[in-house]
Write a structure and sequence with these properties.
heterodimer; A: alpha+beta; ten-stranded mixed β-sheet; six-stranded mixed beta barrel; B: alpha+beta; Arc Repressor Mutant, subunit A; three-stranded antiparallel β-sheet
Amino acid sequence: MLRFLHWRSVFRRKTFEREMADEFAFHLQTRTEDLIRSGLSPQEAERRARLEFGGKERYRAECRESHRVDWLDELVRNSRHAWRNLRKAPAFSLIAIGSLALGLTAVGLMFAVVNTVLLRPLPFAESDRIVTISQRIPLLSSSPTVVTADEFQLWEQTGLFESAALLDTAAYTLDRQAHPERIYGASVTPDFFRVFGLQPIVGRGFSAGDAIEGRSHVIVLSHQLWVRDFASDPGVIGKTILLSSMPMTVIGVMPAGFDFPRLADVSQIMNWAPEQAEFWTPFVITPKTIEDGNFDYYAIGRLRDGVTAARAAARMLPLAVHLFKEKEIKYPQYKGIIEQMLGLLMVYVTPLQDTMAWGIRDVLWMLLAAVALLWVLVLFNLGNLLLTKSALRVREYTVRQALGASRWQLFRQNLFEQIALVGSASVIAVVLILWGIRVLRVIAANKLPRLYELRFSVSDFTLLLGITFLTAILFAALSQLLLSDTALTFGLNSQGRTSTSDQRSNRVRFILIVAEIAASVVLLVGAGLLLKSFRNVMQEQPGFNPQRVLTVEVPFNPKNTDKPEKRLQHIRELIDRLGALPGVTSASVVSYLPLTGEKEIHNVRALGKPLPQNPEGISAEYRVIDAGYFRTMQIPLIAGESLRPGDPSTFAVINQKMAALLWPGEDPIGKQFKDGNNPPLKVIGVVGNVHNGSLEKPEMMQFYRLFSANPYHAARFVIRSAYDPEALVPRVQKTIWQLDASEPVTHIQTMERLVEAVTLRRRFETWLLGSFAAVALFLSALGLFGVASLSAARRTREFGIRLAVGATGGQIVRLELARTATMVIVGLAFGVIASIAVAQAMAGLLFRVTPWSAKIFVGAALVLIASALLAGWLPARRAARVDPATALRSE
Amino acid sequence: MYRKKNESAELLQGTLDLLVLKAVSLGKMHGYGILLRIGQISGGSLEIEQGALYPALYRLERQGLLETAWGTSENNRRAKYYMLTNRGRAQLKEEERSWTRLVDAIGTVLKARASEA
């Protein structure tokens, strides 16, 4: 192909040269003949003809040039010209490139995030067929998550799925010579890896034979764990390792990057999950698992080809209803509850990708919309600047056009200038985006779904490139439109005097500014609403005092704690020792920490009372605590008394919500309630409500019993310090290991960190939208400033006359400000109307703020007016200070 | 030295292009004939070397304003003829208008100065 082109061009060049020689020869011959006819001798005529023609070789070269590489030449010329122009107006270029780069960065980063979280398919084969299976039983849980083992077995047999798996979270202590390590993962039914279409890179995955009681002591390692703790040794396959004193055989290692379930991905659906799965063990469904009927398991599946999620869900619901009816027969005492449940039962089959994005989808689209709005604002602002700049270049264009430059040539030249502008902005933007992605990955990778995959992909880059070029063309067309119209008619004789086309560009400028102001109002109102929500969330009390509290999880080694008394003894000993540390004011233990989202739900019922109408009055969070828990956490005691060491195990403390729902209008102290089928419990005290999982959702009913009532629960120690709790960490670790060196110590963190973690998402969105609004405000002020400056400059002479005939500086300022004010008022009007619609669309993202909060609308308007007045006032003041004599001479 | 020449050529270019287009617009013609016509139109006021015409012709052809064909001249020789394309015609019309406006504008300016003085 290349060779062919080469041949062709050689051939064409030869023809070209020959024809050019012929043409020149014809010219000379004809001229010679004409000269002979006018009376010259043939020799003299030939000499004259050659002389008149001039340097033949030179013109040949010029012909070649103008014929051949016209476009290349123009390219070079245009880009040189473009750069010269950029350098000639450094302030303009700086502002233009700066705001474009900022806008492009925001658009690029936001799109990369949206692309990663919402659009890009999961990195598994035919990932759109991977679904999560869940049901919503409104009385039991507020989030659509869990399924029971028997439901799963029925569903698995429907043939709707190519493969499906039930999973539960799991944690073990990896016993090693040095300090033991706590590892987190999942227990899964054998088809788990097949759902993702993945194979282990070493060894094998699970087979049906591994999921049989007594033969299930096998483990598959994550790549990360394999590298970290087993030095990437393939020989580990077949070896037996000790996990919480249980021998387990390593059978496989999964490929790098696979760590499902991962907390950041599934935090919206799973009550708790490992930060990332480090291992998988077989989930054995025994008759007991089914008998317990726990709604504690998560299910995923790979849909059979051609089965839609909706169809699968529709087929699965009757099976779930059927199971509930069976339970109704088995447990007649729950008849009423089950009847209620059946009417509300829902089965969800959701693509895994959607499940991961659940809860953040709206936020991301909102932010993307905000970024797009900001981008439009950047464009308007630049359009405005460009107008101002064009006005100053009318002369240059007039001359060029008069000298024969065609409109098309001018446009191309113009385009080059814009490409130089937008191009350098996008280079800066790419650098900023790459940097921003690194920052985001560090900050949010473990907090927001899939952000660990965040990168600047080809499609993101293409989008950026597309935007860049469209912008350049748009700007070139805009300035062309204004220039070609203005140029020839008035270019040479108008400089500073109003003309019709000036009025036209004034009108365009007016529209641009109004649009900018309107867009800024929308962003300001949006940011205001989010900011207010954020403040409301931050003011929301978690129900305890999170300041200066350190928490630590100590999963017990079964060999030390195989008897209840021994375990209780161990825990008491630890509480005493931790409480005695210098700087510690009190220490206690609890089965599940607040805020983390971890919980155990029990069904409760007041003795001798009908079930409450409110479905919230059926299930309650259950915690076992040590007597010092309320004091350590500073959870207020509202009524009755707190639990004391040695109290009977049937004593319970409930929260206010439970008191209000089970015994409305009565004194709950001394009343009794049933916890499932266990013996009734007696209420001895009422404490405040405590948030779990989120500060934005209402608290559930909660009740507490002494740890001794159920010592096999997990043990999370809470330690209140008089000073910075972080400083306690090494001593706490040492204390625990002094008692038993084989105990792993995990999840050491301060309560304040936990509060931060549950508000992270809101902090993230508020911060982003807030910075967009700030940039918008700045840009619209800049636009106004530009317009006001230009107007002041153009009217210098007029002001000079006015001042000379006795106008005061204040009058001049007022005159100029009046113009600004008109634009601001019109822009505000449009902005407020648009904001009402936007605020309504944002309602779901707000917390205790009405979308039409007058305070916020007024606040946004005031901020805008203030910045606009400043932007208009500065040039107006300068205009008013002009010396009349100078002004009059200024033309 | 070369550079300087180039700049003056650039300045001329617009005017020359306009004249060439005008000349060709009167009918299909070869290079030498175009030169004669320009001489008539401009009343001999345009003094350029005859060879300088050709780079202009080639450029206009390249720009798609002119097209060419080989034919036989009045003195029975093979000659290359130039014709206006549609775009060339449009361009000429546009440039004629621009030119007139420019001249008017300059005239206005000059007159204004004269009366003010």
